[in-house]
Model the fold of this input.
Amino acid sequence: MTQPEERQRDAVWMSEALELAALGQGYVEPNPMVGCVLVRDGRLLGRGYHQIYGGAHAEANALEDCFGSGESPQGCTAYVTLEPCCHHGKTPPCADALIRAGVARVVVAVTDPFPAVDGGGLRRLRDAGIEVATGVENGKSERLLAPYLKRVKTGRPWVIAKWAMSLDGRIATSTGESQWITGNASRYEVHQLRGRVDAIAVGMGTVIADDPLLTARHGGPRTPSRLVFARRRVPDLKSQLVRTGLEVPTWIIAGPAIPDSDLALLADHDVETMRCESEDAVEMIDEVLQRLARDDNPSGSPITNLMIEGGGGLLGSFAAARQIDEAHVYLGAKLIGGLQSPGPFGDPGFPRLADATGFEIQSLQSFGNDARAIYRKANPDLTQD
Done:
């Protein structure tokens, strides 16, 4: 077989492994989504993916699938979307499992930047005499793994900004009315997204105007934590977020000017607090993102995906901090008009188009008369500070 033919064959099998990996979205974080297929002589022997956080990894599930069907993986090729681990975490090392199984060749899409792995899995496989190929369909795998890669490489979670606006770019009328710009089908999709992220954030303006609940009311693998950026005041004790603090994790991102007594009252209602050192919005966001990506935040587990639901002040601050990685834009079939009707992003804004953050469109869908466009930041910087 020629090299081009081998690369084409590898790409086909790796694409199948990537489809499997995507099934873990929302279930495995803060672990990465990973898929694996085992192939010998062009025949599929086993397939698996990382299904749930703390559970067996993709390679172990693929080997179990192979053995369960009465096959032997001896001499096969394993296609894995992310470098097999080489350390004892919640599960044994996957590199060792592949070695014991007698796998002859391992094809990997992306090297795992996690410090406990970071090329160690590949070295262990090569030291055992296994042929290793890397970089197959790495672009597709990096897109799938982008939230995990950002958190590991930069120490900050992946930030998804979501907003709904009218055809003329308004998120509310001049009197503040915003419910509802989009229809039921669009709102259903928003709840599906909520059920896949680790946390949802709003600003105090949204809490005061809408008294939101911020839950995933149509289910999903996750119960996202609810974050309120509160620079100078905190939510009322009668707000839905506070009244349901015992049922759904709720955190106040508190500016330094907020009195300790106000936070103590919230603590009595099971609301957690993350106190920031700076009141500057951009500095506050950067400090919070770094803390969220660690396991010493109130959830006790790193936040990989953070969803920003507004309002304009918070979205504007995240834009100024250049920390929006993905945007889900819902366009409702209404014209609102009015110079005083707000848009989705507030101050400070960018005075020059050349300074604005660029995005690339990922998908475009319609729900009845509504439309949703999903964008990702163009040329994201995933380097460590």
